[in-house]
Amino acid sequence: ILKQVENARMVAKSENDHPNGMVSIGIPSSIANVLAVPLYSAIRTKYPNILLEINETPSAYLDELVINGRIDIGLLFNFSRAKGLRLRKLFSESLYLVGKQGSFETDDPIPLAEVCRMEVLAPSRTNSIRVQIDKGLFSSGLNLIPVAEINATPVTKKLTLAGQGLTILPWCAIDEELSSGLLQAKLIVEPAVRRDVFIGLSETVPLSHAALCVHQLMIEVVFELIKQNIDKVVTVSDDEIAKAIVVLSERSKQVVEPAGAVGVAALMSGAIKPKGKTVVVLSGGNIDPLLMQK
Length: 294
Prior knowledge:
Layout: H1 2-17, E1 21-27, H2 29-46, E2 50-56, H3 59-67, E3 73-77, E4 85-100, E5 110-111, H4 112-115, E6 120-123, H5 128-140, E7 148-150, H6 153-161, E8 166-170, H7 171-179, E9 183-189, E10 194-202, H8 209-227, H9 238-251, H10 262-269, H11 289-293
Parallel strand pairs: 1-2, 1-3, 5-9, 6-7, 6-8
Antiparallel strand pairs: 3-10, 4-8, 4-9, 4-10
């Protein structure tokens, strides 16, 4: 019996030191465009015994696949429901009006009202991008009548490159085409249209040790990609974020979620010492009213 216990201990130690087995991840095509290669490279380097299965899956179906355990880890946009999911917000991304090179005289931001007067190849209504567009339209009393609705980012980009219309996409989906000069993009403003990106796990289906390792590494890879485009990273405490939420509510009449109030918390705490005029982006209002009362 003692020998069996020792053998089991050695197997467990080997698994901890060298995680192995298959791990399935789901990445929508717009994010896979920039994340798939660095993520695969990082996993192969750090965990060579893990067999990674990458699923490029429409965002509308990913939450269900993660909840049921058919996919271990998913990147989710403006998820349709939180029940059954363990979620961590990674970042928010802005949406852009996109056209083939030469479509716009300048790359200056464009009001959403002006977008409504253009021929737009819009994502289908179930698409996370379309959901955020429709929220912006509703809040501004605007109406967008697309020339077509397409729920496939590669198809949308091909049609846009062919000059068949304009479309609306996040920067990550068009990074290569912008760098090569094939496409142009104008930031949508008045109101700004953004979507939140979460990493999600099932609340009910347990993860293997290998999947937990991949989950942590995915977060690290995403943050490394973000750091390539920022100058500095600072941290703030939960108490400092709570104070910022209260100040924004009382003085600016803004309802801001904790992640969205981090920038203000950094200014108030002195973690960032601005020089001259400073702009802080308030990136979301997804906060429970009961949490506000606390």
